[in-house]
C-alpha cells in the first residue's frame, strides 16, 4: 500500500489573476509507483506543468492532498530524491558542463570528490564526458539539454520529472535525447514522468495520461 513514490488525492491549484481566480488544476488523483514510465499529454495551458511542479514539491496545492510515501517529507525531496528536466536546459553560464552536473550533488551536501565522480559518471551514461570542460555557450541545443538530463540523473533519483524536454529540439535531436534518457534509466526503479506534445515520445512510455483544462485523465 505504501510502495508509492507520490500520491495525489483530489489535488487542485488555483491562481489569482488580479481579482479573477484561474483554475490551473482541478481534482487530480493519481499515484506513481517505482519504475513507472508515464507520458503526460495535453495542450499548452492544460495543467501539465502545474501537476509536475506539485509532484516535485515545487508548489503546494490549494485543495486536496499530496504525499510522498516512499520519499518522505516535502522538504527533503530535492535535490537528491527527485530529478527535474525542463524545456530549457537552465545551465549556469559561468560553470563548465561537469560543474553544472555537480550542482545537485553539492547541494545535497556530498563531498566535492564524490560529486565530481558522480557527475563524470552521469556524463559517461549519456556519452558526453568528452565535453565536460566546455561552457554552456559552446554547446549545441541538443548537447545542452543532454547535460540537463545528466544533471537530473547524477543523484540517481527515485523520481524523474521532465517537462517538455524535447520541445525546443528538432525531431532527430529530440529522438536522440529520448533514447539517451530511456537507456540511462533501463534496469533502474527510477520512475519517469514526461510531459510532452510529441505522440511518438508518448507512445514509447508504458502509460499515457491526458490533461485538458486542468482535468487529469489517468489510465492504467
UniProtKB/TrEMBL annotation:
InterPro entries: AAA+_ATPase, ABC_transporter-like_ATP-bd, ABC_transporter-like_CS, ABC_transpr_LolD-like, P-loop_NTPase. SMART domains: AAA. Residues 6-220 form the ABC transporter domain. It holds the Pfam family ABC_tran. GO terms for cellular component: plasma membrane. Keywords: ATP-binding, Nucleotide-binding. One of its GO terms (molecular function) is ATP binding. PANTHER family: ABC TRANSPORTER RELATED (PTHR24220:SF685), IMPORT ATP-BINDING PROTEIN (PTHR24220). This is ABC transporter related protein.
Amino acid at each position: 500500500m505504501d510502495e508509492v513514490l507520490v500520491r495525489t488525492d483530489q489535488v487542485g491549484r488555483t491562481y489569482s489573476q488580479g481579482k479573477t481566480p484561474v483554475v490551473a488544476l482541478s481534482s487530480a488523483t493519481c499515484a506513481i509507483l517505482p519504475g513507472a514510465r508515464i507520458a503526460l499529454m495535453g495542450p499548452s495551458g492544460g495543467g501539465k506543468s502545474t501537476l509536475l511542479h506539485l509532484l516535485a514539491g515545487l508548489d503546494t496545492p490549494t485543495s486536496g492532498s499530496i504525499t510522498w510515501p516512499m520519499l518522505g517529507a516535502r522538504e527533503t525531496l530535492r535535490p537528491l530524491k527527485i530529478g527535474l528536466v525542463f524545456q530549457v536546459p537552465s545551465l549556469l553560464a559561468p560553470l563548465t558542463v561537469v560543474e553544472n552536473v555537480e550542482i545537485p550533488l553539492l547541494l545535497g551536501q556530498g563531498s566535492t570528490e564524490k560529486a565530481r565522480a558522480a557527475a563524470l559518471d552521469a556524463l559517461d551514461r549519456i556519452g558526453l564526458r568528452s565535453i565536460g570542460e566546455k561552457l554552456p555557450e559552446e554547446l549545441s541545443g541538443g548537447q545542452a539539454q543532454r547535460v540537463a538530463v545528466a544533471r537530473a540523473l547524477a543523484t540517481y533519483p527515485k523520481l524523474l520529472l521532465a517537462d517538455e524536454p524535447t520541445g525546443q529540439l528538432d525531431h532527430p535531436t529530440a529522438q536522440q535525447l529520448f533514447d539517451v534518457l530511456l537507456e540511462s534509466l533501463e534496469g533502474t526503479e527510477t520512475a519517469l514522468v514526461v510531459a510532452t506534445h510529441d505522440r511518438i515520445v508518448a507512445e514509447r512510455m508504458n502509460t499515457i495520461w491526458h490533461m485538458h483544462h486542468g482535468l487529469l485523465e489517468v489510465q492504467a
